[in-house]
Amino acid sequence: MDKTILTTSEAAKLLGVSVRTAQLFIEGGSLTSWKTPGGHRRVYRTDVLALIANHTPTFSSARVIIVASLERLHRFEELVSEVSGCSIGSYSDVHSASFAIGLRLPAVVVFDLEERNKERQALLQNLASNVALAPVRIILVGRRLPAMEQASSDRFIHVETAKKLPEAVRVVLHASSKSRSLIAGGSSFPIALNENQRLTALERSGLVDTEPEEPFDRLTWLASRSLKMPVALFTMLTATRQWFKSHQGLDLKESPRDWAFCNQTILQRDVFMVENLARSEEFAANPAVVGGPKFRFYAGAPVIDADGFALGSLCVIDYKPRTLDQDQVRTLLALASFTSEAVQLRGANQQLRQAKDALRNQRN
Fold first, then answer.
1. Predicted pLDDT at 113
2. Does the pLDDT at position 179 exceed 60?
3. How far from the centroid of its chain's Cα atoms is residue 122's Cα?
4. What angle do CA 104, 109, 111 make, to 5 degrees?
5. Which DSSP letter does residue 150 get?
6. Has domain 195-352 been given CATH number 3.40.640.10?
7. CB of 297 within 8 A of CB of 321?
């Protein structure tokens, strides 16, 4: 038996969660611990690996896959984009859609049934009968298919017209995030229907309160230089804080979440920009605008994990009013996409290390 002793911080790193989450595992009894004479908690590495092996997280996703004709695809995208907290994948080709669904299960698959398409209907039948795809909810838009009448009602939502699609997606997101809000006492800032799941995804990333990392620092440096901005940040939004994983041109490491301009950014999947914060009805009274750094310009794009949740944003800030032209907006979106890929690669490497540790432990 491995008697290697770990601190709470070391256990959190091995689990891939924040120190606070590791403390909650200890306080809740999921992880056995003891106190040193100095009052510090310690755990055995074997117990941490056992927790990893036995822990099967609840399915959660913010991805919405749309399967529709090429002529109607853009309209469906516009409608679903009205729902905050979603990441959209759109496909007119059934084989590409099938691959995307199998690669990483989405929360929702939207099917356009207005036109008769045998391949699309075959994919729908496969989704309905495949047990491995049971967590995925399916929204059918248009005429009813007789073959689907006996399908499990809790998996399927039928809407007669595309106009009702946003509300149907909202119903799914609300049902998937029924638990009590993790933001105590409500909030003074907007949140998505799946905010609880987003916060869980953030904890799962293991990024919060970690040391600076070169891949992220390179991206904020590049954002600052390429867009000629004095401040560039990679922010992560917890229930109470806006924490900066990487920061250029700003000494602060975090701020209260209700100060965060990025609260708006993570609700969408495009660039959110405010040309003059002091003249913005929403942000004119923000402490970061009124006092302190006295910011005047903000532009940010969301940073997305593999399940489609916006963990935070890559943003640029200036002390004077300004704007971004079309090329600069595309640059910011590209840099945010690179940041998302870096986050996802880090997560994949973390899972690989955990799997190797678990396998090594079983062999021992």
1. 86
2. no
3. 31
4. 145
5. T
6. no
7. yes
Structure tokens, 37: 């004479």
Q: How far is CA 153 from the centre of its chain?
A: 28
Assigned token pair, 269: 């999947």
Q: Are 236 and 243 in contact (CB under 8 A)?
A: yes
CB 234 within 8 A of CB 212: no
Helix (H) or strand (E) holding 53: helix 45-54
Using alpha carbons only, give the angle 27, 33, 35 rounded to the nearest 5 degrees. Answer: 100
The predicted pLDDT at position 345 comes to 95
Q: Tell me yes or no: is domain 63-176 CATH 3.90.1150.10.
A: no
- Residues 206, 228: Cα–Cα separation, whole Å: 31
Average pLDDT of the residues in 96-105: 94
| Average pLDDT of the segment spanning 37-56 | 78
Helix (H, G, I), strand (E, B) or coil at 274: strand
pLDDT of residue 146: 58
What gap in Å lies between CA 223 and CA 218, rounded to an integer?
9
Most confidently modeled of 14-28, 92-106, 161-175? 92-106
Strand, helix or coil for residue 14: helix
Question: Does residue 22 contact residue 15 with C-beta atoms inside 8 Å?
Answer: yes
- In angstroms, the CA 268 to CA 171 distance is 18
> Does the structural domain 5-56 have CATH classification 3.60.20.10?
no
CA pair distance 361, 80, nearest whole angstrom: 45
Domain definitions of the chain by residue range: 5-56, 63-176, 195-352
Q: What is the mean pLDDT of residues 354-361?
A: 75
Residue type present at position 193: L
The pLDDT tens digits for 73-85 are 999 999 999 999 9
Q: Report pTM.
A: 0.80
Single-letter code of the amino acid located at 240: T
Q: How far is CA 347 from the centre of its chain?
A: 12
| Domain pair 5-56 / 195-352, same fold | no
